[in-house]
Amino acid sequence: MDIRSQISMIFHLDKCIGCHTCSIACKNIWTDRKGAEYQWWNNVETKPGTGYPSKWEDQDIYKGGWEKKGNGSGDSINLKGAGKVKGFGNIFHNPSLPVIDDYYEPFTYKYLDLIEAKAGDDQPTARPVSLITGEPIDIKSGPNWDDDLSGTPDYARKDPNLENLSPAEQEAMFQLEKMAFFYLPRICNHCLNPACVASCPSGALYKRGEDGIVLVNQEECRGWRMCVTACPYKKTYYNWHTGKSEKCILCFPRIEAGLAPACMHSCVGRIRYLGVILYDADKIEQVAASDEKDLVQNHMDIMLDPNDPDVIEAAKANGIADSTIRSAQASPTYKFVKEWGLALPLHSEFRTLPMLFYVPPLLPVMASLGKSDPDQLDKMGPVVKKWNDDWLYDTSTDEIFGTLDQARFPIEYMANLFSAGDTAMIQARLEKLMAVRIYRRHVTVGDVSAEKSNEALKKAGLTAKMADDIYYLTSLAKFDDRFVIPAAHREQAIEMMEFTGDKKGSAGFGFKEGSAQRGL
Amino acid sequence: MFSGFSEQWRIPVPGTLLLVVSMAMLSDGWAQQPGEQLFQTTCVACHTIGGGRLVGPDLADVHESRSQEWLEQFVQSSQTMIKNGDSEAVALAAEYNGIVMPDALISEQQIRDVLNYIRVRSAGLKSAGGESATVAVQPAPAAAPASPEDIKAGLAMFQGAIRFENGGAACNACHDVRNDAVIGGGILAAELTTVFARMGGAGVKAILGQAPFPVMQAAYADKPLTDEEVTALVAFLEYANSEEYNQLPRDYGIGLFLSGAVGAAILFLFFGIFWRGRKTGSVNQEIYDRQVTSVVEDRV
Ligand code: SF4
Ligand code: SF4
């Protein structure tokens, strides 16, 4: 056992209101500079939709992530679009890179023209100009161009996750009455098996030993952009001005100071949670190479119980600080993923073992879809709507919460996003979310009977205590419950690299670098 | 905080001077004429005193035809003088096939010493009766005709295929020779195809044994060429010179262009196959093509 600690996140999608406060907080701190205008280390995309950059999930186009040849459990995995041989062959021409139009060409307006235009017959206008070339452009796209646009033929219907859905199911998703969407906020997942790190020919990317944050060393980066191809989440970005790649740094300077990352701190919906987990680094390779059907489960199994005495002992032996172990025991991530089994990784089939987990959205169940039986039509209530000969859109549920089979999103769609296609996993999570709601409805409003509530909890495998805890952490949790940030122990990390005794006696006043000096 | 330390190591100045002077007296340079050693190490590659012309003129009695001041200036930097249009210096350069003397990297005092040595030696020659006297350097006896083995060895050494015994850099690091057998050489120093004709066997040999050029001198300072190596290189350079007229650039005509075009086509075909799966353009191109209809004009 080689126990390490990792900062890991939960995004509770039911709570995201799509306000983009997180993206703006991040932009203001980190990417409001030349060359980084188009970068959104944190972005919030509408699902169904093609996302940012467009169709990032389609690895036939972008060749990101790892791929596994064969089916055996002992098989190894290789980078799909990078790695030693492919990377070397493509070192001067990386063939699968996103272009600026896959993101969008950043622009501003010539506002000064409004003020400085000479008097004339026409209203002055502020033309859009590219932030890259400085020349007037036709705006083709922008950040979140398809925001809230469920159903659009160009974006929503080209969502790569619709792949395994039948045409009827796809069509039903986009019927006007039934149209639904949800938001998917994304940051770098700070993966356990980061493809970006593995792909870099310069060795500029690294995963920090003490907390698993994945960073690009700007001094080592030579702008090969292999990481841009390799990251299946397209969360490394090339800065055209500096000629280096950049990515989300999980606000490590804030984390080291005990503050939550800016996106999480500012999140209006309070959907974000952050905590430390302990995992067994020896298993990474084996887990990343497991069969697709076991992948998600194995991924979650790599996280260890921080209360297990054996784990604690092994963690201590590996130099993990007591304060970190204590944080791991209070970690909301561990609770959501392991104790309650509510959260799932995004696209684990990319095999990077992402360390950001999502609680899938339980979209309000409103209606069901079925084959229409002409004989039955008469018996249905007035709310029933029939829109063609074959399909029936039935909104006549007799339950407040309906049943999962009546969910507005086909479970397959969620499964494509969060469980490598395994619908049972999604079903189990949604059932739990539903059970907590039914239980709370019983407790607070009382119009749901105790039997019904108990039955729902039992079916979902929850106890009343667990349901209360889930409710608390979902709805009432305070800052310190949502963000359990371990002490950074930078001093220990630094001592691994250099002898701090050299600096003793040179700290204080009267110097900028090196030792204190007299004079000007 | 270390200042106290260094004080202990301070040696009184007069003592140091004494030490230096006594060491200098012990060295054998002191025993010779001060200019003699300099002449032997620096000048002999190209000049003799009473031994006839090598690469540069015989310097016997040079002070009779030129003023001391002119000589000092010339030794210091003949190139400056030529640039400044000194008629005698220009004429000299022309006489010696445009081979100008490298600027001396020695002090004014040393220049005076050398000139002095030349004067003394010339006088000695006269009193001893000209030719029969010992001269500083005899011109190398006319070399036996170069053997093919020597030429081959010289070629290999020139290109670095055979290493110099003392580890000196191969000639083609800096020099080039236009010859089919030579793949190509450096352009840092002179092109050597016709060096044999310009300087003669003796001159080339002298330069190889004791380079008068500062950069070359530094490069081979503690890695001198052996006599066999010098012989082989001279043989090769003589051969290169004699072959010069066969080395005219060939005219490939349209063939050159066509082979380039065919080569490029093959390369593009290869790239096309190698990168056939590449991503071309934006995944949204089709949307943009359809939606963006206005044309942005008058780019400012
Ligand atoms: S999500 Fe982050 S850590 Fe994972 S591969 Fe992409 S850039 Fe690397
Ligand atoms: S700030 Fe929070 S609620 Fe708003 S978009 Fe970002 S993740 Fe969603």
Task: List strands and helices in order, with pairings.
The complex is a heterodimer of chains A (520) and B (300).
Chain A: E1 3-12, H1 21-31, E2 43-47, H2 59-62, E3 66-68, E4 77-79, H3 84-89, H4 100-103, E5 107-109, H5 112-116, E6 128-130, H6 167-173, E7 182-186, H7 195-199, E8 205-207, E9 214-216, H8 226-230, E10 236-239, E11 244-247, H9 252-256, H10 262-266, E12 272-280, H11 284-288, H12 292-301, E13 303-304, H13 309-317, H14 322-329, H15 332-339, E14 344-345, E15 356-359, E16 368-371, H16 374-377, E17 385-386, E18 391-394, H17 411-418, H18 423-444, H19 450-460, H20 464-476, H21 479-482, H22 490-497
Parallel strand pairs in A: 1-15
Antiparallel strand pairs in A: 1-12, 2-7, 3-4, 5-6, 8-9, 10-11, 12-13, 14-15, 16-18, 17-18
Chain B: H1 3-7, H2 13-26, H3 34-43, H4 62-65, H5 68-83, H6 87-95, H7 108-128, H8 148-159, H9 195-209, H10 214-219, H11 227-242, H12 254-274, H13 285-291
Helix pairs in contact in B: 3-7, 5-6, 5-7, 8-11, 9-11
Bound molecules: iron/sulfur cluster (2 copies).
Structure description:
The complex is a heterodimer of chains A (520) and B (300). With 520 residues, chain A is an alpha+beta fold. Chain A folds into 3 domains: 11-256, no CATH class; 271-363 and 407-482, Alpha-Beta Plaits; 366-404, no CATH class. Helix content of chain A is 32%, strand content 14%. Chain A has 22 helices and 18 strands. In chain A, the strands form 7 sheets. Chain A has a 5-stranded mixed sheet with strand order 13-12-1-15-14, sandwiched between helices. A 3-stranded antiparallel sheet of chain A has the order 16-18-17, with no helix packed on it. A two-stranded antiparallel sheet of chain A has the order 2-7. In chain A, a hairpin with a 6-residue loop joins β8 and β9 (214-216). In chain A, α18 runs antiparallel to α19. The longest helix of chain A has 22 residues, at 423-444. Chain B has helices spanning 3-7, 13-26, 34-43, 62-65, 68-83, 87-95, 108-128, 148-159, 195-209, 214-219, 227-242, 254-274, 285-291. Mean pLDDT of chain B is 77; it is low at 1-31 and 130-140. Chain A binds chain B through residues 50, 53-55, 58, 61-62, 89-90, 93, 95-102, 135-138, 140-141, 154, and chain B through 274-275, 277-279, 281-285, 287-288, 291-292, 294, 296, 299-300. The structure holds iron/sulfur cluster (SF4) (2 copies). Residues 188-191, 194-196, 214, 231, 233, 235-236, 247, 352 of chain A line the site of one iron/sulfur cluster.
